[in-house]
Design a protein that fits this description.
It comes from Achromobacter mucicolens. By secondary structure, the chain is α/β, with parallel strands linked by helices. It has 15 helices and 8 strands. It starts with a helix and ends with a helix.
C-alpha cells in the first residue's frame, strides 16, 4: 500500500462505551464504526529540471486526420540571469498556460449514504448519562360542563324529584359539613306553609324540620290555632343544610338554596305562609327590613302564575325560647294568620 494513501485514509472514530450504547440504541453502531473509503490521490505536476529538453508535442487528432493543425503549446523560456550576478543559476519561467491553470483543490470524499456521522448530532454523542426515556403522554382532560343553575334544574321537578335534587345538591359549601339535607315535612296538600331559616343540630341529625325544643314549641303554637303538621301544615326552611355552628346563613347560600323553596311554594300552593325569623322573612319578601317592622301586618307573595298568597311574619321559636317575653307578640301573629283564612 502506498504510504501516502495510508496517511490520507481517516482513522476509525474512537468512541467510549457510553457512546457505543447510544449508537446501539439508535441502530447505527455498524454504520458509524465502518471505515470510510480513502479520498483519491491527486497527482501534482512536476516541473522539468533545468536544461532538460521539453517533450515533443503530440499532434492533435485533427492534424492527423488532415484537418487544421492544432496550436502547439508554448515552450518553456529560460530567463537569463541579471548582469550583476553572472554566477546566479538561471531560472525557468513556467509556461503561460500552466501559470493560468491552478491545481484543483483536493475535495474530501463524500461519506457513504446512511453514515451516522451526518445523522447523529454531537449533543447525543457527548452525553454522559443513560439514554433518555420517552416522555409519557399526557392525556388532556376535557373540562367539565358548567353546572346547571338550581332555578333551571328545578323548574319542572315534582316534590319527589325536588327532594332528590336537594339531597344531591352541591351549589354551596354547606353540603360538605351536613349529615342530612332537610327538605321538609307535612301535609300534602297543605293549608299553611311554615318557613324557617335553616336546620339546627337536631334537624341535621334526624333530617326533619323543627324537631327538639323549638319544634315542640312550634307544634304547641300551631295547635293553639287548630293547626297540625300532619293534617294542615307543611314545614320547611329557606336553607336546606345546617350552617356550621348554627351561624346565620350567608347571602350566597340563601341565593343558591332559595329556588328550592320557591319551587315548593309553586307545587304545594298553600293558602297562607307563616314566616319565622328575620332571614326567612327578608328572603321571601325581598327586603332588608327588620323583623320588628315586618310583623303585625299581612304581606303578599306573588307567584309565577299570578296568584297572591298572604304572608305573616313572626319570631322564630328558637328566639322565643331565649326571650319568653316575646311569646305574646308571636301569639298575636298566629291569630292574624288565622283570621285571614
Amino acid at each position: 500500500m502506498n504510504p501516502v494513501d495510508a496517511a490520507a485514509r481517516p482513522a476509525p472514530p474512537r468512541i467510549n462505551p457510553l457512546q457505543r450504547i447510544w449508537l446501539r440504541e439508535l441502530g447505527m453502531e455498524r454504520l458509524w464504526l465502518r471505515t470510510p473509503p480513502a479520498a483519491p490521490a491527486i497527482k501534482t505536476p512536476v516541473a522539468p529540471a533545468v536544461g532538460a529538453s521539453a517533450p515533443a508535442p503530440v499532434a492533435a487528432p485533427s492534424a492527423l486526420s488532415g484537418g487544421a493543425p492544432a496550436a502547439a503549446p508554448q515552450s518553456a523560456v529560460v530567463a537569463p540571469a541579471p548582469a550583476e550576478s553572472p554566477s546566479a543559476v538561471p531560472t525557468i519561467a513556467p509556461p503561460a498556460q500552466a501559470a493560468q491553470v491552478s491545481a484543483p483543490a483536493a475535495t474530501p470524499a463524500e461519506p457513504p449514504s446512511g453514515r451516522a456521522s451526518s445523522a447523529i448530532p454531537a449533543s447525543i454523542l457527548n452525553r454522559t448519562g443513560p439514554p433518555p426515556r420517552p416522555a409519557p403522554k399526557v392525556e388532556v382532560q376535557e373540562e367539565a360542563p358548567p353546572p346547571i343553575p338550581v332555578a333551571e334544574a328545578v323548574k319542572d321537578a315534582n316534590l319527589e324529584q325536588l327532594a332528590a335534587q336537594v339531597v344531591a345538591c352541591s351549589a354551596c359549601g354547606l353540603c360538605q359539613g351536613r349529615r342530612h339535607a332537610v327538605v321538609g315535612q307535612g301535609a300534602q296538600p297543605t293549608r299553611w306553609l311554615v318557613v324557617g331559616e335553616a336546620p339546627g343540630e337536631q334537624e341535621d341529625r334526624q333530617g326533619q324540620p323543627f324537631v327538639g325544643r323549638s319544634g315542640q314549641l312550634l307544634d304547641a303554637m300551631l295547635a293553639a290555632v287548630g293547626m297540625s303538621r300532619e293534617r294542615d301544615v307543611f314545614i320547611t326552611n329557606v336553607i336546606k343544610c345546617r350552617p356550621p355552628g348554627n351561624r346565620n346563613p350567608k347571602p350566597e347560600e340563601i341565593a343558591a338554596c332559595s329556588p328550592y323553596l320557591m319551587r315548593q311554594i309553586a307545587l304545594l300552593k298553600p293558602e297562607r305562609i307563616l314566616v319565622l325569623g328575620r332571614f326567612a322573612a327578608q328572603t321571601l319578601l325581598g327586603t332588608d327590613a327588620t323583623i320588628g317592622s315586618l310583623r303585625g301586618r299581612v304581606h303578599h307573595l306573588k307567584t309565577d302564575e299570578g296568584a297572591q298568597i298572604p304572608v305573616v311574619v313572626s319570631y322564630h321559636p328558637a328566639y322565643l325560647l331565649r326571650s319568653p317575653s316575646e311569646k305574646a307578640r308571636a301569639w298575636q301573629d298566629l291569630k292574624l294568620a288565622a283570621r285571614e283564612l
